[in-house]
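Schema walk-through. Below, the input block comes first and the output block second. Nothing else is stored per chain. Lengths vary across the set, and this one has 375 residues.
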Amino acid sequence: MDIQILSTAYPYRGGIAVFNERLAKEFSSQGDQIRIKTFTLQYPNFLFPGKSQFTNLEYGGDVKITRELNSINPFNWVKVGNKIREERPDILILKYWIPFMAPCLGTVSRIVRKNNHTKVIVVVDNIIPHEKRVGDKLLSKFFVKSVDGFVCMSKQVFNDLEKFDSKINKINSYHPIYDNFGKSITKKQSITNLKLNGDYKHILFFGIIRKYKGLDLLIRAFSKLKHEKIRLIIAGEFYDNQDYYLDLIQSLALDDSIILKNEFIPDDMVVNYFCSCDIVAQPYKSATQSGVTQIAYHFEKPMLVTDVGGLAEIVKHGVSGYVCSPDVDSVYQSLNNFFKNNRYDEFVYGVKQEKKRFSWNKLVVDIKKLHKDLY
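--- output ---
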């Protein structure tokens, strides 16, 4: 098939770029013609909360990526839409995660579909954003009406789409495992690489820090652990008020017990953080799904997630980790149970069994099946 992806990709950084490049690689491996069109401008700098939108790494993939789309220029939307309409791919895949992108992607989609050949399929992470803003529902409704079908990364997103269009074509297909961060290394090697103390066990909180991710719950729960040989690693860039967390750490006298890496973790360093830890904690207050769980599955690490959104669909309680309530005591009880009862090996075995459910091949098969069903 002739397939195009219009979304974030190299030279942009982050999970969405990684997802799109890995998905393109899977299509290519199955003999499909695949191209990615990404942004010339993704976010205006004043709207981007992080330090940089771009990766410092070289692109190592084989899929052709061209920078063509400007997220805030309507004239560009028309140009790109007309170009793809004339190129007539069988499928145009969009990734939707924030209503800010609705006017841009929705306009392009409407133009492309006028060729009466290309089907526009959206892989959707969130149709309702975690951090709500005025106009979100109107923007998402505009976008939903502009495409042919959706591949939902969780049942919650599947159900959320009903609020916008009960008749829209949609399927549920879980987020595949992020297997593009390299092979696992030994815990000893990763601890050496990060210059950690090998006498300690480690809890990992990984990824961009936003309020809904519940880092404050984890910090408070961690302060209640009585084990002296445990450290909490916080690895990710603050998109929330950094001082709030630093003050919390100081007020709980945890300065010497928490390892804080306040920066975006480049792809080639991800392996060290996951392989050095004993458990990955995601104490989210709200969620749909998360790529962090799929990195943890790749590196075969037990997980703690909260029972919000679709996280409980990904992590099986008591098998690959814990599913607990999004409150301090529940997070603490789970972590205490894990370390007190030495459940690492038990959960690693469960992770190895559960990870078989998530594959890129299945996602490609699901996308093609949805495409076929649209005719």
